[in-house]
Amino acid sequence: MKKYVAAAVLIAAAAQTMSADVLGFGAGVGSFMGKISGEAQYEGDRFKAKDAGLDKSNNIYAWAYLEHFVPILPNLRVDLNKFSEKGDAQIPLKFGGQDFAANAATDLKADTLAITAYYNLPIPLVDLRLGLSALNLDAKLKVAGAGAEKSASGSGVLPTLYLGARFDIPAAPIGLEADAKYVSYDGSRAADYRVKADLTLEFLLKFAVEVGYRQQEIVVKDKMSGFDGELDIKIAGAFAGVSARF
Q1: Which DSSP letter does residue 19 get?
Q2: Do 196 and 174 touch, CB atoms closer than 8 A?
Q3: pLDDT digit string (tens) for 10-25?
Q4: In order of start, what are the domains of the chain with their CATH numbers?
Q5: What is the dihedral of CA 29, 31, 37, 41, to 10 degrees?
Q6: Highest mean pLDDT among 95-99, 136-140, 158-162, 230-234
Q7: 185 vs 242, which has greater pLDDT?
Q8: Strand partners, 137
Q9: Buried b (16+ CB within 10 A) or exposed e, 201-217
Q10: At a CB cut-off of 8 Å and minimum separation 6, what does 93 contact?
Q11: 57: Cβ–Cβ under 8 A, 6 or more apart, which residues?
Q12: Closest C-alpha to 201, from 146, 243, 150
């Protein structure tokens, strides 16, 4: 926890030299085609995602940001990810003390909402962003079959460090961008890494299409307030979307 406090102090100390020089707003939406790996545990029973028939899923994401030129006050960004995957167990499972036969229905939801306050660092050519996020995780795993059903769920908020960078290729409508959010605390961990390229077409607004690769890691231990089970999953894959900026 000390390293996150130190990072917050560093961001606050540098805030007077960090700001956007123009007023800007942008928003985007798209589909994340993620492959799931990892495992879940509830009341001592553990199984892997592949054994539960949880593999790939197309999911919705959306983002928006607001940048301004007011000194000291941070810029704001919001990221929403809706993840849902249903499958059929590939082998007999035991979950929450209940035995389930193969082909039992499984249902995993893991939605995140991140609100980020950040500053733009005055670096030539590259738009470098540094800030802090409040990441809300809402997760639920359900197994049902033969008239029985068990589920583990919960939600919690974690503070995360945020680092982003963007480079717009001179004299070309192409931009390259990467960002990361990360926190590890008391055995739980949340990470979100993203790299993308976008092609911008300028009309009244700057419309763009974006493609990239994303990896999310969610590790939730039962010591984390609000959760009654354990989750250790990674969701990784390509994404594509559209956006507008002005």
Answers
A1: -
A2: no
A3: 444 444 445 555 678 9
A4: 2-245 (2.40.128.90)
A5: 60
A6: 158-162
A7: 242
A8: 112, 156
A9: eeeeebebebebebbbb
A10: 45, 47, 51, 52, 99, 100, 104, 143
A11: 33, 34, 36, 83, 84, 85
A12: 243
pTM score: 0.84
Give the three-state DSSP class for 232.
Answer: strand
Contact 169, 117 (CB under 8 A): no
Q: What is the pLDDT of residues 115-170, one digit of tens each?
A: 999 998 878 889 999 999 998 888 888 899 888 888 878 777 888 999 999 999 99
Residue 102 one-letter amino acid: A
Looking up tokens 């802090």, which residue turns up? 132
Residue 4 has pLDDT above 60, yes or no: no
Say which amino acid occupies 166: R
Half-sphere exposure of 245 (CA within 13 A, CB side): 17
191-197 long-range contacts, Cβ below 8 Å, gap at least 24? Answer: 191/215, 191/216, 191/217, 192/79, 192/112, 192/114, 192/216, 192/217, 194/239, 196/239
